[in-house]
Design a protein that fits this description.
Elements: H1 2-15, E1 18-22, H2 35-46, E2 50-55, E3 61-66
Antiparallel strand pairs: 1-3, 2-3
Length: about 80
């Protein structure tokens, strides 16, 4: 079972490379973009990926960065 769980985790990561960060703060003011959000949007544009920032008020914030598999550095 453990082998198959690891196998599925690894290959789902290979098929959908990305990064998700979630905190348990109060959320964000979506009308304002800080330096970090601007940097992640710039990075997403450079790697032809996507960045999204979602307020989960009152439970926190979710930030996700994803990119196409062809742009994953370890394939090149």
């Amino acid at each position: 079972f453990l082998f198959f769980a690891f196998y599925e985790y690894f290959f789902s990561l290979v098929r959908n490379p990305g990064l998700s960060i979630m905190d348990n703060g109060l959320g964000i003011n979506s009308s304002k973009e800080g330096w970090g959000t601007k940097q992640f949007k710039n990075l997403a544009q450079q790697i032809k990926g996507k960045f999204r920032r979602v307020s989960l008020y009152p439970q926190g914030t979710l930030c996700e960065l994803s990119w196409p598999l062809a742009n994953s550095f370890w394939w090149q």
